[in-house]
Amino acid sequence: MGKVTIKDVARKANVSVTTVSNVINNSGRTSPDTIRKVKQVIEELQFSPSASARNLRDKNSHLIAVVVPFLEKGRLQDNPFYWQLVLGIEEGARNHQFHVILLGVDEGESFSFVSERHLDGLIVVGTFEGSPILNQILSLDVPCVFMDSYMSDSSLYQVLLDDEMGGYLGTKHLIGLGHQRIALLSGKLQQDGVNYKRWLGYRRALEEAGLPYDPELIREEPVSTVGGYQASQYITDPRMNITAVFVFSDVGAMGLIKGLYELGVQVPRDISIVGFDDLFYTDFMIPSLTTVNQDIIERGNITVRLLLDQIVGESRQQSRKVVLPVSLKVRQSTAPIH
C-alpha cells in the first residue's frame, strides 16, 4: 500500500476529511465515539497525523472572505442582512478554526488582497453572469461559493433562495387582501439577478389573478432605508392609485414606512407593505412587518460548509447548487384594502 493519506483515514472511518482533521488538531465539535473511531483507524493504518497537520497549517491561512461586489463604501453597515449572513458564516467557520472577513468591492478592484492575505477561499454575494468581477474571481483559482448569483456554469458552487417563489408569495398575499395596484420597490432588475427572479414571481401572481402588469408601478430604488424613504413621495402620488407596496428588502420597507408616516399616510390602513428577508428587527417595528422569510443563518452555515469541503479537497454535497425555501410571515403591515 502507498502512503496513507487523510482521505484514506476518513474513508475507512466513514467520516469526513474535516472530521479527521478536527480529531488530529483537537478542534471543532466531534463526539467522543467518533474521536475513538478515528484514532483507532489512524493506528490501524499507521497514519502520521503530525505530518498531515503540519502540511495543513503551512498551506492554509484559515482565513476566508465574504465578498460583496458593487456596494458603495459604507453601505455594508447599512443593511443588517449582511450582519446576519456573516454571523451564520462565522458560526460555521469557527467550528473548523477558520476566521471570516467581510469586504465590499467594486469593478476596479484588483483582488490582490486574496494573495496578500493568503485567503483560503471566497464567498461571493450577489454577482451576475458575464460580470467582469466574476471573470477576475474565477481566474484566482481559489475555492469559491457564490450566493445570490444565478450562474449557468454547473461546475460552480452556488447557494440560492427560491427568489421567484418569494416574489410570488408576497404578491399573492396582497392580491388576496383585495389589492390590485401593487407597486414594487425592487432594486436594480439585472437580468437573471435576485431582484429579476423576484419580479418574475410578482408577474406570475398578477397573471394568475388576471390583473394587468403596469411597468409604471416598478421602481428600481436602491436597496436601503434611504431608497425606501425617498420612494414615499412617488408611492403617495394620487394619480398612481397605489394601495400596496412590495419592497424587495426589509431595510427598504423600513425607510418607506417612515417616509409614509411623515406624509400622514398610515400603514396598513392607507397602504399595505410587504418586505423581504425577515430580518431580526421586523417583528419589533410599528407596525410589525409582513415579509418573506428566509433562514439567513442557515444559509451562511450551508455556504461555509460547501467552501470548507473544497478547501480540504472533499465534496459531500452531490449537487453543487443548493436552493433554499422561503415562506411568508404575515404581521401587521398588511390589511384588506380600505
Automatic annotation (TrEMBL):
Keywords per UniProt: DNA-binding, Transcription, Transcription regulation
Gene3D superfamilies per UniProt: 3.40.50.2300, lambda repressor-like DNA-binding domains (1.10.260.40)
Protein name (database record): HTH-type transcriptional regulator DegA
UniProt cross-references to PROSITE patterns, sorted A to Z: HTH_CROC1, HTH_LACI_1, HTH_LACI_2
SMART domains linked to this entry: HTH_LACI (SM00354)
Alphabetical list of InterPro entries matching this protein: Cro/C1-type_HTH, HTH_LacI, LacI/GalR-like_sensor, Lambda_DNA-bd_dom_sf, Peripla_BP_I
Pfam families the UniProt entry points to: LacI, Peripla_BP_3
Domain of life: Bacteria
Domain HTH lacI-type: 4-58
HTH cro/C1-type domain segment(s): 3-52
